[in-house]
Amino acid sequence: MSAPLNRLAAIGLTCALASPASAQLLNEKSLSAAMALTIAQTALETCTKQGYHVSVHVLGRNGEVLVAVHGDGAPPHTMENSQRKAYTSRTLRIPSGEFAQRVKDNPTTGAVHLTGIIAAQGALPIKVGDEVIGAVGVSGAPGRRKGRGLLRGRHRQSRRSAQVTGKPTTTPSAAR
User: Fold this and answer.
1) Can you tell me the mean pLDDT for 54-77?
2) What's the pTM?
3) Fewer CB within 10 Å: N-end or C-end of the chain?
């Protein structure tokens, strides 16, 4: 390549690199480790006070495990179940119980066959506005009415934390 073409290529490369880097970067909200710990601790304490031996998982925006807690006396299977419930909620952006109802209404739902997905109650998405930035899953507490009470209690507590800190909360639809 001749010297003038080399200079032209160098100038072009310099101009390309000089463009604002922020135009190429994503600006995303993420769940902090401190908030993930608070959510997990609140869920564990709420269930423990009600006499349940549970495991809790808090997942980040990409489904990665931020916190995993195997509560005292919780059966071994609860670790896998709490993670899968949280993953289901994070992936589908809805409470895992809502997905379980969809599967009950339509057993041929394709999402039930995805790796890591489970049709069981016990997880909520964590949202900032309409953006899902994580999920929390609990396993070891009874489902249906009692399980909903646990979710409501956990939801109220994390909303209180969010009001004080201005940080994300679990979705309001979880209180249903």
Assistant:
1) 97
2) 0.72
3) N
